[in-house]
Amino acid sequence: MKTKKKGPRPEPDGYSFKNKMAELSELPKDVALGMPVLTVLGQMELSLENYRGIIEYTDTLVRIQTKNGQIRVTGKRLQVAYYTNDEMKVNGHIESIEYQH
C-alpha cells in the first residue's frame, strides 16, 4: 500500500503568483503586495501601516479595513492616538487582534 506524500498546502488563488512577483521585484512585500504591517508593543500599543480606513471605533473595538480584509482589535479603553493616510496608532489594553476576510 502506497502512502501519499504530503506536499505544500495550496495557496489562495493569485497569492502564489503575487508572492513570487514580489520576490522577483526585490521590493518589500508590504509595498509590492499592499499588505498591512502591524507592530505591537505588549498589550498597550498597536501601530498599523497600509490600511484603507477605520470602519468602527469604540473604547472596546476598533475595526480597520485593509486591502485584504479587516483587522479587528478588541480591548479596554482603546483609543486611536493618531492616524494619517499611511499609518495609525491604537493605544489601550489590547486583548485580541483578529484578521477577517
From TrEMBL:
The protein, known as: Sporulation protein YqfC
NCBIfam families in alphabetical order: spore_yqfC (TIGR02856)
Pfam family, one: YabP
Domain of life from the UniProt record: Bacteria
